[in-house]
Amino acid sequence: MSMINQEIDDFSVQAFHKDDFVTVTKDDVLGGWSVFFFYPADFTFVCPTELEDLAAIYDKFQEAGCEIYSVSTDTHFVHKAWHDTSESIAKLPFPMLADPTHRLCDIFDVYIEGEGVAERGSFIVNPEGKIVCYEVNAGNIGRNAAELLRRVQASQFVAEHGDAVCPARWMPGAEVLHPGIDLVGKL
Fold this sequence. Notes:
Blueprint: E1 12-17, E2 20-25, H1 26-29, E3 33-38, H2 46-56, H3 58-63, E4 66-72, H4 76-85, H5 87-90, E5 96-98, H6 103-107, E6 111-112, E7 117-118, E8 120-125, E9 131-137, H7 145-160, H8 179-182
Parallel strand pairs: 3-4, 4-5
Antiparallel strand pairs: 1-2, 1-5, 3-8, 6-7, 8-9
C-alpha cells in the first residue's frame, strides 16, 4: 500500500541536537517541509557516509525551508556517544531522533523486526504532515543527498504549482510540463 498523502501519526521522541537532548513531536514538523531520514544504526559503515553527505548540503535544505530529521532505533544517549567519538558525526547540524520504541519506524513502516533496526528510508513530509515522496533502500545501498534535495524542491514546486509536473532530472528553474495544456496540439 502506498504511503503517498498519508498523514503521519502523532509522536514524541527524544533527540540529540546541538550538544543537547531535546524532544521532537509531530507539532514541531507541522508548518514546514521535513525529511525523515531513517538509517539502521549508529557506529556502522554506510550510515555515517550518508549523514555526512546530508550535512554537507544541509544549508541548501534550510534555504528550501526543509528540516532534516535523521532517525535510528538507537537512544539519544547513543547518538551523543557517536557524536562525541566521530569527527564526521560531530559535524551534523540536524537533529538525530532516537526511536528505541520503534514508534517512528512503525509510523513510516520501516522497522525490521528480526533485526531491531530501521530500513534505509527517506520520507519527504509537507507542511500539513503528509508524506509526499519516499524511497526505501536495502541496508547495503547508500543514498544521495543531492538527489533527495532535488526531490524536496520538486515536491515543493508541485505543491505550489498544482497544474505543473516535473519531468525526469528536473531542477529548479527548468521547464515543467502542464498535462492538460501540453497535450493540446499533440493529439
